[in-house]
Amino acid sequence: MELYAACSPLTRSFLRKISSVKGGVGAKCTEQRLDESGVDGVSLWTAQAEKAADDLSAFCQPSGEQMDAVQMVCKSAGPRLVLIINPQWRETLDS
Questions:
Q1: What gap in Å lies between CA 88 and CA 63, rounded to an integer?
Q2: 3-state secondary structure of 44
Q3: Is 51 exposed, middle or buried (CB count within 10 Å of its CB: 0-12, 13-18, 19+)?
Q4: Cβ atoms < 10 Å from Cβ of 45
Q5: Cα–Cα distance for residue pair 79/43, rounded to 1 Å
Q6: What pLDDT is stored for residue 30 in this prediction?
Q7: Number of other residues whose CB lies within 10 A of the CB of residue 77
Q8: Among positive and negative, which fits the CA dihedral 94, 69, 82, 47?
């Protein structure tokens, strides 16, 4: 939960910054917790822009258990941006 406490506000800041770069004034951001237990620290942030075409989504700290939700959101987003933010994931395996 300590990592989530740092990662969640950062995710919100990313969405607000990206939405303002796209010409808006910063989208309205809302968070939906995805972890049933409430202790894993997994959420989906959505940013509603002035135009629906500019809406954004970001998963904060998803694990393999949320991949169905990630795929569903990506499919419904179409060409809109969906981010996955998890500082624990690595591109390569540590040796």
A1: 10
A2: strand
A3: exposed
A4: 21
A5: 21
A6: 94
A7: 14
A8: negative
pLDDT, tens digit (0-9, with 9 covering 90-100), for 15-44: 888 888 766 666 789 999 998 777 778 999
pLDDT of residue 89: 67
Cα(41)–Cα(27) distance, integer angstroms:
23
- Give 61-87 pLDDT, tens digit per residue: 998 888 999 999 999 999 999 999 987
Residue 87 DSSP symbol: T
Say if residues 14 and 58 touch (Cβ distance below 8 Å): yes
Closest CA to 59 of 26, 67, 49: 67
Contacts of 90 (CB under 8 A, 6+ apart): none
CA angle centred on 39, ends 32 and 90, rounded to 5°: 85
DSSP element (H, E) containing 19: helix 2-21
